[in-house]
Amino acid sequence: MPELLSIRDLRAGHGDAVVIPGLSLTLAEGEALAVLGRNGVGKTTLLDSIIGVTRRFGGQVSLAGRDISALPPEARARAGIGWVPQERNIFRSLTVEENLTATALPGKWSLARVYEMFPRLQERRGNMGGQLSGGEQQMLAVGRAMMLNPRLLLLDEPTEGLAPIIVEQLLTSIRRIIRDEGMATIIVEQHARKILKVTDRAVILDRGEIVHQAPSADLLADPGPLEQHLGVIAKGAAA
Ligand SMILES: Nc1ncnc2c1ncn2[C@@H]1O[C@H](COP(=O)(O)OP(=O)(O)OP(=O)(O)O)[C@@H](O)[C@H]1O
């Protein structure tokens, strides 16, 4: 598969703090990558640097061969990056349907397709974003990103804080988006084993650096590196 995303020697952080001291990574068209690591190692900062809301000290981010390093987040979204941040950022005083259509771009993902993926959103189409449950808000955030018809989807801890049954529903939808729709995706996730079943490849970060990378299937077959680098998180997620 041709290369979609290329990150070369990225140095990025917040304010004067360098969180990512020099990271290189590529993602192929249609590939799904899990980003794993303990709390505070820079997983969110990596995703935020791809969409452009961190401070870049050096290095380059390219999408489909185009250097997007100097573009503001809105321009990166228009260039083809759908971003679902940890805090979801839905418009609380717009309806579900308005949230979905407000920033939509043309392509195969239409309202009908998003409603087919998330029937609950159709039922709630007239409700305000602020009236939704946590799970519904997360579905709305993913649906809104799909309505951008992105080439690359960034998901930051999509299942965080959700009830187990909602986690399973959401992971089923994410699996469909990746497997059936072939969407190139980068997912930060605490449920390591669950997300390894959905992704092709994984990187483990520590202090802003990639300390291990492997096909997801290899990490599932031999969880040694998960236990080494994630410790209790991996054991907890094994249940
Ligand atoms: N807006 C910010 N301003 C200053 N420092 C920040 C900011 N966001 C994150 N940091 C710091 O950057 C480091 C990496 O944080 P980051 O959120 O990227 O890690 P993470 O691996 O995603 O962790 P978590 O799993 O807890 O979300 C941490 O030390 C954090 O305190």
From TrEMBL:
This is ABC transporter ATP-binding protein. Pfam families: ABC_tran (PF00005). SUPFAM superfamilies: P-loop containing nucleoside triphosphate hydrolases. Residues 5-232 form the ABC transporter domain. It comes from the Bacteria. The keyword Transport applies. Belongs to the ABC transporter superfamily. GO terms for molecular function: ATP binding. It comes from Paracoccus broussonetiae. PROSITE patterns: ABC_TRANSPORTER_1, ABC_TRANSPORTER_2. Keywords: Amino-acid transport, ATP-binding, Nucleotide-binding, Transport.
